[in-house]
Design goal:
Keywords: Hydrolase, Membrane, Metal-binding, Metalloprotease, Protease, Transmembrane, Transmembrane helix, Zinc. This is Zinc metalloprotease. Residues 228-256 form the PDZ domain. Its cofactor is Zn(2+). Belongs to the peptidase M50B family. It is a single chain. The chain is an alpha+beta fold and 456 residues long. Helices cover 44% and strands 21% of the residues. It folds into three domains: 92-121 and 325-456, no CATH class; 137-217, PDZ domain (Pdz3 Domain, Roll); 228-309, PDZ domain (Pdz3 Domain, Roll), CATH 2.30.42.10. The protein has helices spanning 2-29, 92-120, 137-140, 165-177, 211-217, 236-240, 259-267, 325-352, 363-376, 378-396, 404-417, 423-452, and strands at residues 34-48, 56-70, 122-125, 148-153, 159-161, 181-187, 195-200, 228-231, 247-251, 254-255, 278-284, 287-293, 296-300, 303-307, 310-312, 318-321. The strands form six sheets. Strands 5-4-6-7 form a four-stranded antiparallel sheet. A four-stranded antiparallel sheet has the order 10-9-11-12. The two termini are 22 Å apart.
């Protein structure tokens, strides 16, 4: 919990500082006097002013945001000898640049964070897939456990190399959201020539990028040998005599392909009258044993599933994914662009009802993912930080009155008409923008709580 909280505070702190520093740096460059640079809102808990009459730097008690307060005649009287330093007196292009600098700083930060993660490198599961779920698109396409996905394409002409399972999931998620057909270049586990298969993702009509949608696609899980790991003492597997290191060969006479196959058979063995006994054939120290395993039946998101309380599956085959200096930087720019467009498309689909509002996440989910990524290692945390930085940059460019994008819309109106938006309209738009933001924040927090309580 402490790691999660510290990781969350570091994430929020870094992104706010970079965002506000973008505004601050460009404002200073344009000759605007900056009165205060604040990280957070509310009561000031730390304050520093390097020189009298200069910018006051503060940290406040509520860390959810920040601001740069500039000299502005619309907020307070400005002495005549300082009017040339006021924000509102600057040319339209400079005002727009100052406002846009915050989101742009977040997007540039994301490029550097992605690049740093690429340079450090990570060990990721190879794109060798588990047995596709029954009824999935991958099963219908003939993909089998142990097949390796080497490349993907959306048009059959431009192919992208798949370096790891993370690459594969990303390509599937993008094609799924855009309702595009995805072609895969598959190297069979049993050997032989590579073949191309087609996944018609548009037929799924998925409204959420959740585990259920990925199961319906069928290529999201890495291959793992059906080897028994840790066994919970007193659980169904322990009572049946299963031991760590056992390799599952057959269940109820059916040959087992991989660990995913075992988990699926256990999960679906939960009828109204309880779970039926399962006949397992396992290999232990070179000998074959016959065991009877009866799963416990538990509730999971409103469904009854079987569970034997055992860690199933050997560690997947791994590969080191690392980039050179220029390649890593170019990949960072590409990843930032792809994540930005994906975020915009997701928001657009939520707005018109083609994507579920459950995709909207808030601070609890961010904190949870921050803690998880820190535990995985520096490269994973930098990648997570890049994702949140992209989200903050894109969100602030939306044309909502209380956001930077809303102010840019005001300046666009001024550029077209030659006059600023009237105070009456500004007041009404600001109120409307605050109402929209409050609704979005409430929905995001509700989704966080629903996930935390297992209601989604």
């Amino acid at each position: 919990m402490i790691v999660t909280i510290l990781a969350f505070l570091l994430t929020i702190g870094v992104l706010i500082v970079i965002h506000e520093y973008g505004h601050y740096r460009v404002a200073v460059a344009c000759g605007v006097r900056v009165l205060r640079f604040s990280v957070g809102f509310g009561r000031v808990i730390w304050r520093r002013q390097p020189k009298p009459g200069g910018t006051e730097f503060v940290i406040c008690a509520l860390p959810f945001g920040g601001y740069v307060r500039m000299l502005d005649e619309r907020e307070a009287p400005v002495p005549s000898d300082q009017k040339h330093l006021a924000f509102n007196r600057k040319p339209l292009a400079q005002r727009a640049a100052i406002v846009a600098a915050g989101p742009i700083a977040n997007l540039l930060l994301a490029v550097l964070l992605y690049a740093a993660a690429n340079w450090i490198g990570v060990d990721e599961p190879k794109s060798i897939v588990a047995r596709p779920a029954a009824g999935s698109l991958a099963e219908a396409a003939g993909i089998q456990a142990g097949d390796q996905i080497r490349a993907t394409s959306r048009d059959g002409v431009d192919w992208r190399e798949v370096r790891s399972m993370t690459d594969l999931r990303w390509e599937v998620a993008q094609a799924l959201l855009q309702k595009e057909t995805l072609e895969l270049r598959v190297a069979p586990r049993a050997g032989g020539p590579e073949r191309n298969v087609t996944l018609p993702l548009a037929s799924l009509d998925a409204r959420e990028l959740d585990p259920q949608a990925m199961r319906r696609v069928g290529v999201g899980e890495p291959f793992s040998a059906p080897t028994v790991g840790a066994v919970t003492r007193g659980g169904p597997a322990d009572r049946a005599g299963l031991k760590s290191g056992d390799r599952v060969v057959e269940i109820d006479g059916a040959r087992i392909a991989d660990a995913n196959d075992v988990r699926a058979r256990i999960r679906t063995n939960a009828g109204a009258a309880g779970a039926a006994p399962m006949r397992w054939r396992v290999e232990r120290a070179g000998s074959m044993l016959e065991l009877v395993v009866t799963p416990a039946v538990v509730g999971d998101n409103g469904q009854r599933i079987g569970r034997v309380e055992v860690q199933m599956g050997a560690r997947p085959a791994m590969t080191s994914v690392r980039y050179g200096l220029l390649e890593g930087l170019a990949s960072g720019a590409t990843q930032t662009w792809q994540m930005s467009t994906l975020t915009l498309k997701m928001l657009g689909k939520m707005l018109i009802g083609e994507a579920s509002l459950k995709n909207l996440s808030g601070p609890v989910t961010i904190a949870d993912y921050a803690g998880q990524s820190v535990r995985l290692g520096l490269a994973y945390y930098l990648g997570f930080l890049a994702i949140v930085s992209v989200s903050l940059g894109v969100l602030n460019l939306l044309p909502l009155p209380v956001l930077d994008g809303g102010h840019l819309m005001y300046y666009l109106f001024e550029a077209v008409t030659g006059r600023p938006v009237s105070e009456r309209w500004l007041d009404g738009l600001q109120r409307g923008g605050v109402a929209i933001m409050l609704m979005m924040m409430s929905l995001a927090l509700y989704n966080d709580m629903a996930r935390l309580l297992g209601l989604q």
